[in-house]
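We were asked to recover a plausible sequence for a given structure. The inputs and outputs are reproduced exactly as logged, with field labels preserved.

PROBLEM: sequence recovery
POSITIONS: 122
GIVEN STRUCTURE:
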């Protein structure tokens, strides 16, 4: 019998392989993305200190109020804009993108493009 590994396990393994190479520093923190079936979460992390500098999610009250649905490409794009504006306000302009083991298409790509338009460089 063939045993298949679940998609979530495959994603976690990809993420750990990527994390061996992607490290956020004080000069260039890490933009980490996570998406569930209902929401998206993004945060900018300084791995040398282990602190979150900026975060945003579709689960927040003010972000959710602007959205019709929280799990589509439009919501991801809006979340990227919100995160980019918050980061620029804190003086963060350069980040390393950590897609969290997800494929760079759809929601993840929309979030990244919107964050770039809002002023982040990666």
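RECOVERED SEQUENCE:
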């Amino acid at each position: 019998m063939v045993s298949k590994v679940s998609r979530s396990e495959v994603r976690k393994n990809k993420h750990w392989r990527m994390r061996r190479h992607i490290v956020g520093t004080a000069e260039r923190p890490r933009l980490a993305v996570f998406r569930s079936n209902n929401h998206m979460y993004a945060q900018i992390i300084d791995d040398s200190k282990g602190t979150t500098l900026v975060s945003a999610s579709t689960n927040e009250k003010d972000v959710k109020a602007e959205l019709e649905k929280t799990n589509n490409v439009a919501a991801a794009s809006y979340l990227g804009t919100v995160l980019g504006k918050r980061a620029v306000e804190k003086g963060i302009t350069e980040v390393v993108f950590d897609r969290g083991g997800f494929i760079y298409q759809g929601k993840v790509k929309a979030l990244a493009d919107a964050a770039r338009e809002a002023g982040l460089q990666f």
